[in-house]
Amino acid sequence: MQCHYCDKTNDLRPYGPKGAMVCFSCAMETPERKAEMERNFATQLDAAGPMALIDGTNVGPYPAEHNPDAMRLMGPNTNSTAPGAA
């Protein structure tokens, strides 16, 4: 897999057009690309729910409940519903 804009094949993130993989330098190259990257990241973060993780993988943010270690560290009273929900 390589960057949507260049030949770079490592340290890519899914924040390009329609979720395409992009490297940081290409994503930040123009104000339009930067704005698109920020919108796509915000959309993915929102979709991950109230407790999201960003762990250095190339998958972008994902729900904390999908990571057993994170759930163990957050304690037994942690649930994946929105704050204030029963």
Task: List how many beta strands DSSP finds.
Answer: 4
How far is the N terminus from the C terminus?
A: 43 Å
Q: What's the number of structural domains?
A: 2
Overall mean pLDDT? 82
Q: Give the low-confidence spans.
A: 82-86
H/E topology pattern: EEHHEEH
The side-by-side strand order for the widest beta sheet comes to 1-2
Number of helices: 3
Radius of gyration: 15 Å
Structural descriptors:
3 helices, disordered C terminus, two-stranded antiparallel ribbon, 86 residues
Describe this structure in words.
The protein has 86 residues and is an alpha+beta fold. It folds into two domains: 1-47, no CATH class; 49-86, no CATH class. The chain has three helices and four strands. The protein has helices at residues 24-27, 31-47, 68-74, and strands at 12-13, 22-23, 52-53, 62-63. The longest helix is centred in the middle third of the chain and has 17 residues, at 31-47.
Walk me through the topology.
Blueprint: E1 12-13, E2 22-23, H1 24-27, H2 31-47, E3 52-53, E4 62-63, H3 68-74
Question: What would you say about this model in short?
Answer:
The chain has 86 residues and is of the alpha+beta class.
